[in-house]
Amino acid sequence: MKSNRRRVGIATAGLLALASGSAIAQIGIESPAPFGDGGEVVNAGARVSLDATQRAALADAFAWSTRDAGILSQTLSPRVSFIPSPGHTERTDYLNVKVKDRSQMISQLAGEGLDFQTAPANTGSNRAASADASFSQVVERVVARQQEARDRLAPALRQGYSDIDSYSVKIPAGISAEVVAEVLMLTGDYEYVSMDWLCYPTDTTPNDPLFSQQWYHAPGRINTPAAWDMTQGDSSTIIAVCDSGVDLDHTDLQAALVPGYNSTDNLAQIDGGNVNDDLNGHGSLVAGSAAAIGDNGTGVTGVGWNFSIMPVRVSNISSGTALLSEILEGARWGSDNGA
Questions:
Q1: Which ranges constitute the DSSP H helices of the chain?
Q2: What is the SS3 assignment for 228?
Q3: CATH code for 211-336?
Q4: pTM, whole model, 2 decimals?
Q5: Within 10 Å of residue 247's Cβ, how many Cβ atoms?
Q6: Among 31, 109, 315, 319, which one is least packed by beta carbons within 10 Å?
Q7: What's the mean pLDDT in 284-307?
Q8: Is 245 exposed, middle or buried (0-12, 13-18, 19+ CB in 10 A)?
């Protein structure tokens, strides 16, 4: 009898493990999380009614099941826009579709009313057998539903990646990728539908003459060229350089400067005043390493070459030494003023 109780516990625990996460039972009609330029972004979506030609094209493109019958006739509100990143990605006529894994499909079926009864009013070996049978039936339904999801995509299949259950499918002519993605997600069978982007190789190397001497940019160091393929920073990001000041007339820094502060004199920079001119060059070196303007054919390249630089002078001593209180005051002022 003890052995039978253990079998019931294992079967029930296994089913509950698969069925856990009921809070995501509705994930089937949700869009992938947004991930910025070049990806999917959530939007409200204009309402779309498919005409007869579009419905016929979709009907031919995918192997719909009987339970899908109402999807093509309903008014759709696509919730995702596929936004290319100029120079990096380009839209294509293909979508990547990921079939839900077993646990996600269990949650989907739970949301559709599947009975998860695992402990019938039996005792002993009958209870164990009933629990095992219930578990087996659920697994069979999940496996069948996953296969149905794959079969639906078969007519439009370009390439399959069975190890991750993901498939590249052709978008039927005359219908937007966003509409096709919405229609497929409404079946409840897919984790996500995303654009199969055409991706361009990138090699963002600035033309600044001293860039090659900046050893820390190299792939074996911080590998900034790989980051620059994605972004070179934005002027809305302000770096407060709390140091010996910054050369306000430096050709590789001047255009990036925003008003700064001298914590030793408690003076804010007014009308381009020189309260933050560099005392010994160290502050300009730090500012340049962080945010010297890049790809301008001049000098060096900063890590974020589009960042803004806020010069904060915390020392009036030629050696560059500074009191901790003045360093903290400069940092506080910078933080309070947008850095």
A1: 2-19, 52-61, 102-111, 124-153, 177-185, 224-228, 282-291, 324-336
A2: helix
A3: 3.40.50.200
A4: 0.55
A5: 20
A6: 319
A7: 94
A8: buried
